[in-house]
Amino acid sequence: MTEDLRVIKTIRDIQNGFIQVLQDKTFEKITVNDICTASLVGRSTFYHHYQDKYDLLAQMNHNQTEKFNDLLSDRIEQLSQDELLLNLYNSLIPDSKVITTLVEISDVKDNLKATYFKLLKQYFVKVSSQIKIEVPNDFLSDFYANSALTAILWSLKHGHQEEISKFMNGLVKKSIG
Prior knowledge:
Elements: H1 5-22, H2 32-39, H3 43-49, H4 53-76, H5 82-92, H6 96-105, H7 108-127, H8 137-158, H9 161-176
């Protein structure tokens, strides 16, 4: 189903305006009017797409979590291939400002970690007969999910995707290799 290009642009503008306003104000102090002003849309247009600023935040969290889940699903299947992790990092760069902003004000970090943990746990169960892991799968999944998310968020803020991805791949290879 193809959406109207005007609708896509309007939603993009509202979301970009929201992120722009969040650079200067806390979420609690932001009003729908602030978002509309930054987005160059009217209040009725905003309310046509969102119930309120909480709905906007929830939808943006959901969208970023889904994108991350899709990218991560590809990565997990071949955990130790260096170029796949670098591709994951580079694929997140266009949304870096959105991701790093949402992480500061919402539960998106917990959602991303939960996604990572679930996929890693499935992966480690699948490969447990091929590799010898000296610690429980839950521990390894939680440890790697936390470490990987920290690395991803740090690289989105500061760059160095290639160096960080090589370091993280080395960590995985030493842990499960």
